[in-house]
Specification:
alpha+beta; Lipocalin; 4 helices; about 45% strand
Length: about 180
Amino acid sequence: MKLKLTLLALAFAMATPAIQAADKNDELSSQVKEAITLFQKTDPDMKKFFAESAGYAIFPKVAKGGLGIGAAHGKGQLFEKGKAVGETGLTQVTIGFQAGGQIYSEVIFFENATTLKNFKDQNFEFSAQVSAVAAAEGVARNAKYEHGVAVFTLAKAGLMYEASVGGQKFDFKPYSK
């Protein structure tokens, strides 16, 4: 009896990290779906980017704050041909006049397979020259790719005053097949 309980406890202990990882993945997937719905509801013209891009990375919740020096971080998923292929992270550091905090969603559309591959190979970061467009109705209609990407953000909460320079760096971890 003790041996059975010990084996059961050991099996549970070994399975717990996998269960927790699955729960985190399910939570992230749910947040991503909500963010996609919100972007498309905010600007129905954005549906063409979701349908026609080589892929996209979506970060449902990016937290950003700063006072002189700023930082932002968020987790998301990378999609290729409409299917989630992995988890991605965003990190940003900025320097300049800035004060406040903000939470926003961000989606990055990749124009072609080369740009998407560079992102997946973690050979991709934004410089200060790539700018995001605040999502609003009709904005996507005239939006164009710059350097192979189109970036949209959607403010969720907070207020940030900013005149800063910085870039975003990304990491990518593919889902196992």
